Amino acid sequence: MQQPAPAPKPLRADAARNRDKLLVAATEVFGERGLDAPLEEIARRAGVSIGTLYNHFPTREAFWDAIFPERLAALEQVTETALAAPDAWDGFVAFVEGLFALQAEDRGLNDALAQRFRAAGEVEQACHRGFRHAERIIRRARDSGQLRPDFEPQDLVTLIWAMSQVIRESMEAAPDQWRRCLAFFLDGLRTGAAHPLPVAPLTQGQLSEVMRSR
To answer: Could you tell me which of 37, 64, 43, 45 has the C-alpha nearest to residue 55?
Structure first.
């Protein structure tokens, strides 16, 4: 019978303090500058050496897995609110507005949800859960007859890519500009505004290929 792996030893008090300072600094720096922010800035803001940073977080992804599951948990609340809305269209609008509001608050989260960098572990799993929830919200809005019937979950992914860029570029000068852009998108997604589209949505294979290239 295989023996369970021994529990990790608790950190010394000074090491635990350093780890906590690094997490606070990383949350701030990634939030301000995005997921490609220099790790040296995180170490500087935490008041520790770059060696200490790598001792606690040997990869950039290790930081992401420590920080973003809690941030992505807010998306679960957005989803619950959307699904609880009596009107399916209102629920769909609440979902996309809530999603992009979270992205607009945090450059790092904006990068993570737009998958500008390849994620793994907890972040990847949280994104997959969010996509499954989004499928339910989209299907509910389509079934109500209010969301155009040719809008697919893959189209939400391309909308996230587009809106993440709007958010990224306008965050400093006009942090609410994404709301105007989204309003145009939403008007075009209403059934009454629908016209035949020139191309089909991305297939799952195409979507996977695009995500790998990103």
So the answer is: 43
CB 63 within 8 A of CB 141: no
Say which CATH architecture domain 61-213 belongs to: Orthogonal Bundle (1.10)
The CATH number of 11-58 is 1.10.10.60
Per the CB < 8 A criterion, the answer to whether 59 and 28 are in contact is no
What's this model's pTM, rounded to 2 decimal places? 0.81
| Alpha carbon distance 171, 15 (integer Å) | 35
Residue 125, pLDDT > 80, answer no
Number of H helices, E strands in the chain: 10, 0
- Average pLDDT in the chain: 87
pLDDT higher than 80, residue 56: yes
- The C-alpha angle 12, 13, 18, rounded to 5 degrees, equals 95
